[in-house]
Design brief:
The protein is built from eleven helices and 13 strands. The strands form three sheets. Strands 2-3-4-5-9-8 form a six-stranded mixed β-sheet. A five-stranded mixed β-sheet has the order 10-11-1-12-13, covered by helices on one side. Strands 6-7 form a two-stranded antiparallel sheet. The longest helix has 19 residues.
């Protein structure tokens, strides 16, 4: 049926900065710990221990005690338990807490996990998550144990207030036990490259949970590449790892509330989704060899670091323009209908909600938009319209005109 009116979507694209807040989430706490690990590592003693550490390796059946967090309480408490090596690969070991063996984790599960770590991804690659992450993001650290293999440690991580945890990377393990005690707050170190994963109460073979292996491994790589990176960039790269692995996190929440600042982090589900979408869009539309890897290793953080590497790789486009294109693509993308800068290749997006809809005129509407965030306003009318805007900050303004009698048009105003 032919449409008799034009739909004009007005997209407010605010591009200001917010100052950092004190951490209020587990991710922000871990971000703080990365900086603490950097502080205690800057010593001659750490360099001496690193250079003299004996080579450590494991065989199937070897046991040792590991420190980990009990995440059933907040703040987390420390506990130590015995675990046994259940598989050895070219790039990793899989350890399982002894109290979970043949309870919530068995050899079949270990074999499934090891296959995805070493041999394949859900995207069908002929290499596993470890090589995939190294190729995309950079080398895995080998700080203390002189063993290039990482440890993937499965245990029951617990739940807190109904929230279960997939896994985590801890910067405590990148320093010695003595240095971990000097961090704020004091902690414990297993003195090895390690990823903690859950086998209870969550299913360790759930496809998204297996994909989280690539997510947590990216955090370890980013620790080496840029130890004090902004949380939103680190988490965005970790979400991008899951996209490349072939099983991204589900896209929800952010599409119903796009007025969230891209470069702030409050540990909302929408925060994960917004950075998933941004870095997937960025990766698809700004293809250059090692661009993502070089952003991970870039000393500057956040928007400044991304902008530096865009210049280094020959892209003469400001970050503000990329943000504007991305915001329009989120609204327009419909399985590749729109070519060029307004679509995604690897993802199918849900509908993005508009903040206001107007079809009765004249209308006078006011509102606010968060820094580096977006609001969508839909105006439906069959005749020409005059649109007037009064703004008191720098914004980007996208005008999308859609109708059957004309080709869809997009114009982004400075």
């Amino acid at each position: 049926m032919k449409r008799s009116c034009f739909i004009i979507s007005i997209i407010f694209l605010i591009v200001l900065n917010l100052q950092a807040k004190e951490f209020t989430s587990l991710e922000q706490f871990q971000d703080h710990l990365k900086r603490e690990s950097q502080r205690v590592m800057d010593s001659e003693q750490h360099a001496k221990i690193k250079s003299e550490k004996e080579v450590r390796d494991y065989n199937v059946g070897d046991s040792r005690n590991f420190w980990r967090w009990d995440l059933s309480v907040m703040p987390p408490t420390w506990e130590q338990s015995q675990a046994t090596c259940r598989a050895v690969g070219e790039n990793c070991y899989v350890f399982v807490s002894d109290d979970q063996w043949n309870v919530n984790m068995d050899q079949a599960v270990v074999d499934t996990v090891m296959n995805y770590l070493e041999n394949t991804t859900m995207a069908g690659n002929d290499f596993g998550a470890i090589q995939m992450d190294e190729d995309l993001f950079g080398p895995i650290p080998d700080e203390l144990d002189n063993d290039p293999k990482i440890i993937v440690y499965y245990s029951a991580l617990g739940m807190f207030n109904g929230t279960a945890f997939d896994g985590y990377f801890s910067a405590y393990n990148q320093v010695t036990e003595q240095e971990a005690q000097q961090m704020n707050p004091p902690g414990h170190s297993n003195e090895c490259e390690m990823i903690y994963m859950t086998c209870h109460p969550l299913d360790p073979t759930d496809p998204v949970r297996i994909s989280v292996l690539s997510h947590e491994l990216q955090h370890m790589i980013h620790w080496l590449g840029d130890i004090n990176e902004d949380t939103w960039v680190d988490e965005g790269m970790a979400e991008l790892a899951m996209v490349h692995f072939g099983m991204p996190d589900p896209i929800s929440s952010f599409n119903t509330n796009p007025n969230l600042s891209l470069n702030t982090w409050d540990q909302l589900w929408a925060d994960y989704v917004k950075v998933l979408l941004f870095f997937t869009y960025f990766d698809e539309h700004f293809e250059s060899e090692d661009l993502i890897k070089d952003i991970v290793a870039e000393p500057q953080n956040g928007i400044a670091g991304i902008s530096n590497q865009l210049i280094e790789h020959g892209f003469a486009i400001p970050f503000e323009a990329i943000f504007n294109y991305w915001s329009v693509a989120n609204y327009l993308d419909e399985e590749g209908i729109y070519d060029g800068v307004y679509n995604y290749q690897a993802l199918e997006l849900p509908i993005f909600s508009h903040s206001y809809f107007h079809n009765d005129f004249p209308v006078d509407q006011s509102g606010t938009v968060n820094p580096w965030a977006t609001k969508y306003v839909v105006v439906s009318h069959s005749n020409e319209l005059s649109l007037n805007f009064n703004v008191n900050n720098n914004i980007g303004l996208g005008i999308i005109k859609m109708g059957n009698d004309i080709n869809s048009e997009v114009e982004i105003l400075p």
